[in-house]
Structures are given as structure tokens and as C-alpha cells.
Here is the input.
Amino acid sequence: MLKSIVMMDLPIDDIAPMERWYYEAHSTEISRRYGPFLQRHESYVALDAPEDARQFGFYNWRVTETFWREMPEAGARGAYCFTPAPVWNPIATCTVKGQPDNDFFGWDGFSTDGASIRWYILLRYPLGVRLKDGEDWFVNVHAPEVCRQPGLTRFFSFKCEQEAIPLPGMWHPDATPPQDMTMVQWDRVVELWYPSFSAWRTAVIDEPPEYTPPEWATDDFYKDGHATYPFFKPGVDFVSTFLLERPADEFLRDTRYYRP
Amino acid sequence: MAVRILTPEEEAKPYAKYYHRAITPPDADMVALIQPDAPMDPALALPPEHISDLLDPGYHELETGWCNMPNGSGYIAVHNRMPGVTTEMLDWWFWWHSMADMRYGIWYPPGHYGISISKKSRAKLADPTLLANEKIYGRTDHVVEDVGTGAEDIYISFCAPEEMGFDMSRFHAPNVAAVYGGFGFDQAQGAKPTDIRAPAIMCHFIREIDGGIEFRSRFWMGYKLIDRKPVLAIPPGESVPVEAVYGLANHNVHEYCNLKSLLPEIWAEFKDADPAM
Here is the structure.
């Protein structure tokens, strides 16, 4: 099973027409046309993160996770084009397996121990870093150190599919999301959970564990290297947002109608 | 294409004279096979999954040409004979040139503008106890190069033949003398974070022939190399731009024809010199 992920950012002035379009047109078209292929199609609204939590390539609108029982063929395949958005917004998108590849921390707890906010991250290794070298640092060096963050409740991660996984459906040739707003090449999705933003601040800003920087953080050869945690250049190789545990929308079964 | 002006420090280097030498034009028969309006038949392309077919004796039906494949990827094959060139020279060249912008520039001044390597790689290249293979495999070069579509940042990660998927039970003479290849990503200079990092697999397959070597190059544009296997990274319906495929094929013919004309001489003069000079 594959899970497609779309993380979305949005100028706040566009929130009203985009919320209406997303609920009334886009998610409806996906649910109606591809429902038989879908297991889940749900969306989380980004939390209103404090300023210091927005310095890590923050995306402010939504994350939509779509679980595919089977991936439909790409192309039109009997469907109309998607209704174009009233404005185009930045998105970061990738495909992962249905379950995480690595569960690093917190699996031995209980969900009843307490609720969490999820720091939801897409990252890629900087240009010049081989995937296997980046993975070696992330899994064997960095992850064990992250597990020592005070107050961390959960930490797991997915490897992104490296081959192109086409999503079904067609945009109109004259109304296609612009490429310069779309980031598609990612290596990992990471989830770090904390009880609150205060706990996140303690773990990440005020009392972080000692980290071992990767080679790309200390050598000018890697022009997009980043010297400090998280060792990825925000907005270039690292985008993130904060979500709750429960989706705001489950499009396959949501029967609320949008229009006021 | 522009030629970079050398700095006074570069002009003072003993090998600067090679940078100013007139470019050796490619053989006419090779130029004839790489034309912008004449892509080859994609059915004659070697799929990257069959890279070990290069170890077979003889030649493939098509050894020089370029095309877009039906899956959108780009394919390039170039067969370049290099009389007077030896594997020893190539082994030296494929690490020596990475130590300075001008050395990379000497290779083909109109398109080779700069090169950089990591501190770790530089230390390896300066280590006289390491073999050439140890200096080449595992290294990543960042080159600034114009292959016909404007200056690009290109990251080339050299891989050992087993990492490239070769059948190592057949990887020996006379099937092969050496392979210089790996995978890479390129972006136009000044690219935005949203710009695609275009992947490609590169393979320069060397065999010894009477009086020299032959260079059988293959490029699979649009493919990544992951866990020793090629992975197509182009969504259906998308294609590597035709100009990029033809451009790289044309550039490859020009840069290696120039290299073969100067390599024996530059190798003889500098092979025993301090590599850090």
C-alpha cells in the first residue's frame, strides 16, 4: 500500500476561496473518481505554530494523506480535468509506503499516556550527498541522538519512493499547478511528536541533545549544507508543519456540504 | 560557448599552456552520427538494466547515437577510439583533473568552467598511497559545465563497477579494461528549490584495442542509481528535453575528442608531479 502526501502552504488572504475549492471541488473529484482505489483520503489542518517553530520551512495550510489500496493508471481514463484552483499555492509532495520504515522512539508507550502535536517533516539530502550516505547518517547517527530529545513522545520515519509514482487524474494544460511552486524530490518523511509547543521548544531549541553534524554541514563543498540542527536548509531541503493526531477531514465519508 | 578567463594564479601554473591550446575538432564521422534532427531508433538503445551487455565481445548494433526513449528518458551512446591513450592515463586523468578548475577546463575549455570536491575527497586525491580506483570510486565532483543548454551545476558521483550493476564474474580483460561512471544530478545555475534535480546514469566503458583504447560511453538520462539498480524517475507523460539529450551527446563527442588529443602529452608531463601543485 502506498500513501501519497501533499503538504500545502498558502498566503492567508487566499484561505477562504482555497478552502472552498479544496473541499467543494478538488477533494470531491478525487473521492468520486478514485474512491474505489482509495482506503483513506484525509487532511490535517496545520496548527497555528508559534514564531520560533516556523523557522524550519514552515507550511501553514494542510497536509493531505491519501492511502491507495491500488494505484490507478495515470492519465484521463474517463475523468474530466480537475477543476483549477482559484490561486496556485506552494506544495511539497511525495509518496511513501503505508507504514513507516523506521520506528525509532515511543512505540512502547500507550496512546492513553497523553495527546501529542506532530512535527511533520519532509527532507532530502543536499545536492552532492549520496542517498546511501545520507541514510547512513540519518538512521545510524542522527536518529539515536534525536531519541534523546527531552519530552519527545514519538519518532518514526518513512523512506520516500525514489521512482516517479504518478497520481491519477489530469490537470487542464492551461490550468496546471505551476512547477515553480511544487517540490517533488524528497528522501524522507519524519514525524516527531511532543505533548505541546512548549515541550517542542524545550526539546528542539532550549535543551537539545548533542548532535553529530553530517559531513555536508561542515564542508563548503555542499552549497546547500546547513551548519546547525536540523542540518538541512529550511525551505530548500527541509519543509515542515505541525498537526494534531486526528484529521480535520475524512473526504471519503464526509457529507458536510461546503456552501454556506 | 564562452571560455573562462584564467586568473593570474592559474596562468602561472605549468599546465596553463594546455588550456590555451586550440580545440581538437571531433572526427567528421562522429559528428555525422550526432545531429540535432536525427535521433537514433530507440529500439537499438541498451537498457540500463542490461549494462552488463557491454561486457560481451564485439559491438552493439548501434554504438553512437542519441534519442528519447518511449518512457521519456534520454539515451546516449558514443563510441570514441583513442589511439595512443592507455588505461593508465585515464586512471590518472579521472582523479587528477578534479583537483583544480583549470585542470577540468583543459579537458574542454568552451564548456568546462569549474570543479570542486569535498575536503574528504581532496585528502584522498593527495594521498600517494592510494590506488587510482580508490581515488575515483566513491568521489563526488561538482562541476559547472555547459553541455549545450547553458551553464549547469552537475554533481557526478563515481561508483565502482559492482555498484553500477555490472556482472563482476565477467568484469575482466579482454571484456573490459576500466569503467568510469556513476550517477549524477544537474540543475541550471541559480536554480530555485522547486527546480527539478535532473538525474542521470553515466558509464564510460573502456576496452583496450591495438594502439590504444576505445571509449564506449552510455548515458541514461532520467534514471537514478539506487542499490545497484537503475530507477526511472520521470513521471509518465514527461520527457527529458530533446535539447538536453542531443546537447549532452554532442558535448560528449567534443570533450572526449579534445581529451584524447592532449591526454598522452599532459600525462607524460605531470603524472609524477606533486598532485597538489
